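Field reference: sequence -> structure
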Amino acid sequence: MKLLIATRNAHKLAEIRAMLPGIELVGTDAWPTVPDPDETGKTFEENAAIKAEAWLKATGLPALADDSGLEVEALGGAPGIHSARYAGIHGDSAANNARLLRELAGLPIERRGARFVCALALAMPGEPLRTLRGTCPGRIVAAASGVNGFGYDPLFVPEGFTRTFGELPEEVKARISHRARAFALARSRWFGEA
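Structure field:
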């Protein structure tokens, strides 16, 4: 089976290859003239579905897409689907982290509950769209710590740990993250692996 992964990010494609062994994966860079669809959904699942369906239509290949981000309880679920552009510029992690810390300033740790979310959507020719979600609960600390990972990782301590994703070894994050949990579900539900 050849599966299109709806990303142009080589690092993310390599990560997904490790999570879906035995499946031939191709990224969207193989179609440089096909534009990425606008992510106009109101949920992670809707945005993942938009990408998966658009790439299935453009290529005819089964397409798997993800959408992920951080939900903070004290902020009513923000930054949510706007996680990558929370401070206004897409992918500016330093600005996003600074805004998050400003908005949580003064809140005690017990009121800083949060979770990372990863929604996956699988679009297959002639079949209904499938979606699922993986989450990783935890807390937001008062100051960034660690240099591993990316995005909000230096601010997020996963449940059951005392160090942030920015401090934890990559192999630990690869086992417990929202993306790891979503892909474990995808392997068992969609690709017939335990």
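Note: The helical segments are 10-19, 44-59, 93-104, 170-176, 178-189.
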